[in-house]
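User: Here's a structure from my thesis project, written as structure tokens. My advisor, Dr. K., wants to see whether a designed sequence matches the one we expressed. Can you design one independently, without my sequence as a hint?
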């Protein structure tokens, strides 16, 4: 039995609250246990200078991620003088993951901005950000289609992410902070609804792990991501998307 009473293959209670913000093209508040992230999508009619210089005929998608100061037990300082290494690594992961869900040639001349703001952090913030951003992106694209601002959806796959790990030689799904901070193995897995891997981040934090243990972890992640995608689709179905 785990700290919060879950079985090893249980996700934390998860909820997607759509249209959480008024101004973005799409937004969602994702709750994953005690972790909560506001994910928003803004789409503008421009592309980065490097794309214009190279005359690349497609759109772009980029992401920003931030922990709010009071999202953790000890206040996090705002990153006023440039983002830190952890923040940069996470937002690059979010951007790569969401680009894998899109055919950007279908939004030529446009940039999709993904903003993920963590308001409560209890582990798995990058994974919650990716899963929530996918929902917000699908809402945003549906809005553009209904407004005739685009003629075709660039979304080619639904994606989700989950954390997995090993603690006392037991593979665990969807680690909370207390589990994550003590885990012997820590992984973040991003997959599509076609059961294809987009990214696997993993490391031995406390002790090395075997190929068999890695297979067990990946199987657990696949099960969890299937469940998350079902919840994403339920949220969007309620919006007739």
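Assistant: Designed independently from the structure alone:
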């Amino acid at each position: 039995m785990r700290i919060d009473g879950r079985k090893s293959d249980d996700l934390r209670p998860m909820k997607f609250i759509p249209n959480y913000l008024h101004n973005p093209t799409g937004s969602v508040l994702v709750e994953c246990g005690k972790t909560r992230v506001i994910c928003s999508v803004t789409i503008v009619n421009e592309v980065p200078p490097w794309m214009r210089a190279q005359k690349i005929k497609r759109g772009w998608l980029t992401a920003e991620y931030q922990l709010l100061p009071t999202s953790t037990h000890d206040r996090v300082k705002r990153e006023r003088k440039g983002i830190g290494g952890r923040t940069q690594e996470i937002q690059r992961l979010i951007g790569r993951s969401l680009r894998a869900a899109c055919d950007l040639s279908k939004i030529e001349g446009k940039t999709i901005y993904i903003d993920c703001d963590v308001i409560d952090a209890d582990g798995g913030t990058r994974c919650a950000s990716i899963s929530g951003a996918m929902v917000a992106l699908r809402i945003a694209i549906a809005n553009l289609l209904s407004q005739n601002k685009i003629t075709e959806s660039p979304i080619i796959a639904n994606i989700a992410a989950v954390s997995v790990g090993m603690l006392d030689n037991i593979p665990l799904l969807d680690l909370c902070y207390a589990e994550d901070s003590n885990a012997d193995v820590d992984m973040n897995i991003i997959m599509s609804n076609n059961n294809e891997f987009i990214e696997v981040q993993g490391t031995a934090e406390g002790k090395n792990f075997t190929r068999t243990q890695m297979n067990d972890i990946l199987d657990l992640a696949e099960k969890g991501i299937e469940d998350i995608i079902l919840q994403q689709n339920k949220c969007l179905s309620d919006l007739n998307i």
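When you compare it with your expressed construct, this may help: The chain has one domain: 14-238.
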